[in-house]
Design a protein that fits this description.
149 residues, alpha+beta, Sufe protein. Chain: A, four-stranded mixed sheet, 4 strands, 42% helix
Length: 149
């Protein structure tokens, strides 16, 4: 199976059955993100204790890519330290904004590798990145709504 087919399957699966799609009862930080291009609205809430992300969840509505990306993000950062989560964010951002012809090291990228397919659709990069930037704002405790514009 090539990366494109895997990308489509993962997007569809996480869109239909998103992980951590719920509200957190007692978040320690949260942020709201909005993509005016396609109307995606994502709220990310985290419970951080001793610099470790104990729990993370998201709510909102959006396209399949934004919802799937948020779902995968929550599974990857839960249990990680804040610096580790920030490193995963940097890896994700580098992957989705890299040159379309740049090879993807699947071993290194791990679960993020499937999002390399978003590079083929430049307008969808913002959809994929929305939840990630919203998480970053929540961790930085920025008191503002995140927008992809």
């Amino acid at each position: 199976m090539d990366l494109r087919e895997l990308y489509q399957q993962v997007i569809l699966d996480h869109n239909k059955n998103p992980k951590n799609f719920r509200s957190l009862e007692h978040p320690t930080c949260a942020s709201e993100g909005y993509n005016p291009l396609c109307g995606d609205r994502i709220n990310v809430a985290l419970e951080v204790e001793d610099d470790v992300i104990k729990d993370v969840a998201f709510t909102g509505s959006g396209c399949a890519i934004s919802k799937a990306s948020a779902s995968v993000m929550t599974t990857l950062v839960k249990g990680k330290s804040v610096p580790e989560a920030e490193e995963v964010f940097r890896q994700f951002q580098a992957l989705i904004t890299s040159d379309l012809n740049a090879p993807v090291d699947v071993q290194e990228a791990g679960k993020l590798a499937v999002f390399a397919g978003v590079r083929e659709f430049p307008t969808r990069v913002k959809c994929a990145a929305l939840a990630w930037h919203t998480m970053q704002a929540a961790l930085a405790e920025e008191d503002k709504k995140i927008s992809t514009e």
